[in-house]
Amino acid sequence: MESFPEIVQVVPFPDYTVSVYFADGKIVSYDVKPKLDLGVFRALQDPDIFLHTCTIMNDTLAWDYTQTGDPTACIDIAPDMLYSLSSAEDRLAS
User: Fold this and answer.
1) Tens of pLDDT, residue by residue, the chain (94 residues)
2) Domain regions of the chain by residue span
3) pTM of full prediction above 0.90
4) Helix (H/G/I), strand (E/B), else coil: 43
5) Nearest one of 66, 89, 86 to 76, comparing CA atoms
6) Please, are residues 27 and 87 in contact by the beta-carbon 8 Å criterion?
7) How is domain 7-82 classified at the CATH fold level?
8) Tens digit of each residue's pLDDT (9 = 90 or more) over 30-50
């Protein structure tokens, strides 16, 4: 199994994107908008849930939308897919 750098920070934005920061310095932007009408992702249509439950779980970007802290009851995104995204600008530094 290929190893990817550790995700050290995730920052959600009101436009339904998340900046994902990796330990090796890479930053990517993940756009959730195309998934908002699909299955479990519908829970993220609520801006409060999207913004306030975004976290790192299972060593990747996740939403603890059940607010239970249960890593099996979250929405998470495959870290290899996130790392394969093109590098993005640091929106926090802007």
Assistant:
1) 467 789 999 999 999 999 999 999 999 999 999 999 999 999 999 999 999 999 999 999 999 999 999 999 999 999 999 999 999 999 887 6
2) 7-82
3) yes
4) helix
5) 66
6) yes
7) NE0471 N-terminal domain-like (3.30.2020)
8) 999 999 999 999 999 999 999
Q: What's the rounded Cα separation, in Å, for the pair 90 and 19?
A: 8
DSSP SS3 for 89: coil
Q: Are 41 and 51 in contact (CB under 8 A)?
A: no
Please, what's the b/e burial string for 42-79 (b: 16 or more CB within 10 A of its CB; e: otherwise)? eebeeeebbbebbebbeebbbbbbeeeeeeeebbbbeb
How far, in Å, CA of 68 to CA of 3, rounded?
28
